[in-house]
Amino acid sequence: MSQFVFGVDIGGTTVKLGLFTSDGTLLEKWEIPTVTENSGAAILPDVAASINAKIKEKSLSFEQIAGIGLGVPGPVGPDSTVYKCINLGWGVFNLKEEMNRLIPEIPNVAAANDANVAALGELWQGGGKGKNSAVMFTLGTGVGGGVIINGKIVAGANGGGGEVGHIVVEPNETEACNCGKCGCLEQYASANGIVKMAKNMLSKCDTPSALRDMEHFTSKEICDLAREGEKMAGIIIDHCCEYLGRAMSFVACTVDPDVFIIGGGMSRAGCIISDTTFDYYHKYAFHVSNNTTIATAELGNDAGIYGCAKMVLG
Q1: Is pLDDT of 2 > 80?
Q2: What are the backbone angles phi and psi of residue 309, rounded to the nearest 5°?
Q3: Is 125 contained in some domain?
Q4: For 220, how many CA atoms within 13 A lie in the half-sphere containing its CB?
Q5: Exposure of 215 by Cβ count < 10 A (0-12 exposed, 13-18 middle, 19+ buried)?
Q6: Is residue 101 part of a domain?
Q7: Which of 98, 162, 227, 237 has the fewest CB atoms within 10 Å, i.e. the most exposed one?
Q8: Is residue 193 part of a domain?
């Protein structure tokens, strides 16, 4: 009987691996370097070697392993085909087929985008535990996301499902997002975006702010000042949360989740983000959805490996 599963979250610098029991208990986690040279040719062989070493270390048999779940920083189709991972140097190929070649003893392999698996992990054992559906907004350097309906990842026909950071929330924006469009949520609600927005707002007004005395400032410093009651920082955070709440209202009209989950570094700002976002979400959302809970992610950097494990367990 299968008792264990591996969750593997492949990032541009490190690969996070976890060994789980079939009930979702994380027994052990570890990391290996992500070797991106030679178009990332060594990444999956290194993952396979690490898994085989762990199986040997724990004196497990292959029959005890339910499977391997993989999360990668790029679009992944429903058949586990990855459609380029620029940060890893990968082109287009089938992850399941390659892992089956490397570890034929573990045929059950599933793969998905890293943001999607993080959302699945949070729904399973984190901020959305006990719910059936969730949409996660990961506010980090950029804005990622994931859509989980009835416990299943909604990846879309081309692996583009859950790209909530590229919902256009400001049609009057003239500066382009990294994706090439203008006015994406990522330009206002990511850590980089909120700093850029703050600098722009400061240049257009004379409202006093401690930010003016800083040569460089971060999104955390903006949040801290807003929490302390500084007017200008509060205005900046309010703008960020309005865009975020508006984006959530768009998503709610499409999938109507049980819960929205805010993750990433910006989520550590706590209620100053979540409460203000909810106020705007409640204002903009369709009436049957306007009281949907907004929760904070709980699993941190482990969300990916949890979600990878859950993909395999179903």
Answers
A1: no
A2: -65, -40
A3: no
A4: 5
A5: exposed
A6: yes
A7: 227
A8: yes
